[in-house]
């Protein structure tokens, strides 16, 4: 598809902090499905992190088109930007942390979650959203962040929630932390320059920070989040659009689920595509920490822990109605 190279170049530009030396693997995926009668357009609002890898790979391999969709990825800095684009009709689905979706719904945006994007690792010690500091930082635990400056891609969103969980679990007061908004690709250089005291790592920039800058983990929020893996990243859409076009969105959800399953079964190929999507060196992509793709289904139970923490820490003022939020096709 002619437009793929244009889209890939745009996405690489978002991550210009690191050198682009990768190309995507393009072996076609066997989806086991017949060629659809019609290929429909789908624009997805995305944040340039590894969770987009499975969908990007589905585009590159042709699996998305085989499943009926010509997919365009539209990059953004936060879920707020994506939701604004969705409301203006520029995108049909969006990716983000579940907390951002909870907040948008409470603020009057009638969203529904249609598919899981990723889950936390099966081993909570294998943190993919660690709080990182410079090697010689005097900070020794999460509670030491009181009075310090921590970068997150969207204040009050999922990454800040993770930091707050770690701080509260360590006996600290999250309200005393100075959170600043900063694009995910910009955070490692800012920490190295001393502009911030810590950031909530999103892969591949967590591994990049450890290997290129020598950062160390101050705290892993997942150890306090839940005793088991949970769905963290989600794909969402406007309820009005899903209600009006349920077959279209059901097919979108099926395509995403198939992409996640393929990613689970083809880890090496996934990492090659993540390298192309984020612009990192393929050798680094081979070592980054990844969430769990395709293992946990989109269920109320698998979202409950983050919903509970969001309410406990005041990210939402009311308990999240997951029964209404998780769309049943």
Describe the structure in your own words:
The protein is built from 15 helices and ten strands. The protein has 329 residues and is of the alpha/beta class. The chain folds into two domains: 2-120 and 229-325, Periplasmic binding protein-like II (D-Maltodextrin-Binding Protein, domain 2, 3-Layer(aba) Sandwich), CATH 3.40.190.10; 131-225, Periplasmic binding protein-like II (D-Maltodextrin-Binding Protein, domain 2), CATH 3.40.190.10. Helix 6 (158-169) links the parallel strand 6 and strand 7 (178-181). The longest helix is centred in the last third of the chain and has 20 residues, at 246-265. The chain is globular. It starts with a helix and ends with a helix. The relative contact order is 0.20.
List keywords for this structure.
329 residues; alpha/beta; 2 domains; D-Maltodextrin-Binding Protein, domain 2
Write the layout of secondary structure elements.
Elements: H1 2-14, E1 40-46, H2 53-61, H3 63-66, E2 69-75, H4 79-87, E3 93-97, H5 98-106, E4 111-119, E5 131-133, E6 149-152, H6 158-169, E7 178-181, H7 187-193, E8 198-200, H8 205-213, E9 216-219, H9 222-225, E10 231-238, H10 239-244, H11 246-265, H12 267-278, H13 282-285, H14 300-312, H15 322-325
Parallel strand pairs: 1-2, 1-3, 6-7, 6-8
Antiparallel strand pairs: 3-10, 4-10, 5-8, 5-9
């Amino acid at each position: 598809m002619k437009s793929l190279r244009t889209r890939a170049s745009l996405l690489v530009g978002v991550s210009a902090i690191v050198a682009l030396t990768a190309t995507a693997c393009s072996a076609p995926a066997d989806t086991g499905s017949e060629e659809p009668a019609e290929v429909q357009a789908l624009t997805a609002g995305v944040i340039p992190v590894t969770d987009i890898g499975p969908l990007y790979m589905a585009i590159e391999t042709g699996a998305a088109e085989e499943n009926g969709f010509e997919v365009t990825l539209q990059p953004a800095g936060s879920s707020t930007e994506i939701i604004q684009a969705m409301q203006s009709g520029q995108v049909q689905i969006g990716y983000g942390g579940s907390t951002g979706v909870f907040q948008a719904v409470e603020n009057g945006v009638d969203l529904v979650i249609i598919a899981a994007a990723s889950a936390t690792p099966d081993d909570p010690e294998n943190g993919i959203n660690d709080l990182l500091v410079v090697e010689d930082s005097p900070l020794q635990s999460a509670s030491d962040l009181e009075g310090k400056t921590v970068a997150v891609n969207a204040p009050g969103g999922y990454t800040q929630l993770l930091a707050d969980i770690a701080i509260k679990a360590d006996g600290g007061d999250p309200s005393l932390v100075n959170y600043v908004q900063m694009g995910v690709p910009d955070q490692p250089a800012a920490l190295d320059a001393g502009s911030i005291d810590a950031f909530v790592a999103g892969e591949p920039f967590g591994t990049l920070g450890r290997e290129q800058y020598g950062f160390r983990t101050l705290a892993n929020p997942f150890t306090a989040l839940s005793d088991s893996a949970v769905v963290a990243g989600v794909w969402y859409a406007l309820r009005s659009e899903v209600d009006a076009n349920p077959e279209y969105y059901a097919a979108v959800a099926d395509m995403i689920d198939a992409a996640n399953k393929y990613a689970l079964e083809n880890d090496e190929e996934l990492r090659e595509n993540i390298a192309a999507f984020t612009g990192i060196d393929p050798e680094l992509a081979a070592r980054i920490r990844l969430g769990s793709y395709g293992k946990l289904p989109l269920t109320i139970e698998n979202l409950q822990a983050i919903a509970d923490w969001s309410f406990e820490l005041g990210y939402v003022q009311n308990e999240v109605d997951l029964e209404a939020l998780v769309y049943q096709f």
